[in-house]
Amino acid sequence: MSIELFNESGVDVPEQLVIEAARFAMARMDVHPGAELSVTMVDLETMSELHIQWMDLPGPTDVMSFPMDELTPGGRPDAADPGPAMLGDIVLCPEFAADQAKAQRHSFDHELAVLTVHGVLHLLGFDHAEPGQEKEMFGLQGQIIVDWYEARDDRARLQRQAQRDARLLRNTGFADEVRD
Question: Burial, 11: exposed, middle or buried (Cβ in 10 Å; 0-12, 13-18, 19+)?
């Protein structure tokens, strides 16, 4: 998956975290591995302009999604595999996200991850205009975030274990014997 991130917001953003969250959500939703995604971080003024232009709503918002190609998560088992496509653009407002994170008493990083997953789901056609849609979308979003954190924790644990194993092998001299 090709994910491009552009930070035009003037706010320091954990770019790798946003890319990881987007990549995980896309993989979880069976988006073709060759699909492309663009994530742009903007300031409050730019987000306000986009919000008015595209949603006819005043003021800034946290995330907006602009789908490009129609993609269906998972596809049909009897259909030919879809080729790669341009999924679309996600626009995030880090300043708005920071205020939202503070109000909800969680980290800025967590808020960005949630908003990124939210944006990916919108690109895939999910919405929350109706109560049933909202329940489905936010349930899926929550599960993807939980699974993403678990996968990150597993990777970190495995990496720590590999480092301990390497140190142990070096200290016992076994690593030298394996190389001979």
Answer: middle
Cα gap 9→141, rounded to integer Å: 25
Amino acid sitting at position 26: M
Of 62 and 32, the structure prediction assigns the larger pLDDT to: 62
- Name 72's Cβ contacts closer than 8 Å, sequence gap at least 6: 82, 124, 125
3-state secondary structure at position 8: coil
Q: Which are the contacts of 139, defined by CB distance < 8 A and separation ≥ 6?
A: none
HSE value, Cβ hemisphere, 13 Å, CA-based, for 100: 17
Which helix H or strand E contains 146, and what residues bound it? helix 131-172
**Of 120, 98, 108, nearest in space to 36 by CA:** 120
Phi, psi of 41 (to 5 degrees): -100, 130
Digit-coded pLDDT (tens) for 106-145: 999 999 999 999 999 999 999 999 999 999 999 999 999 9
Q: Does CATH place domain 2-179 in 3.40.390.30?
A: yes
* Digit-coded pLDDT (tens) for 97-107: 999 999 999 99
For the CA atoms of the chain, what is the radius of gyration?
A: 20
CA 49 to chain CA centroid, Å, is 24
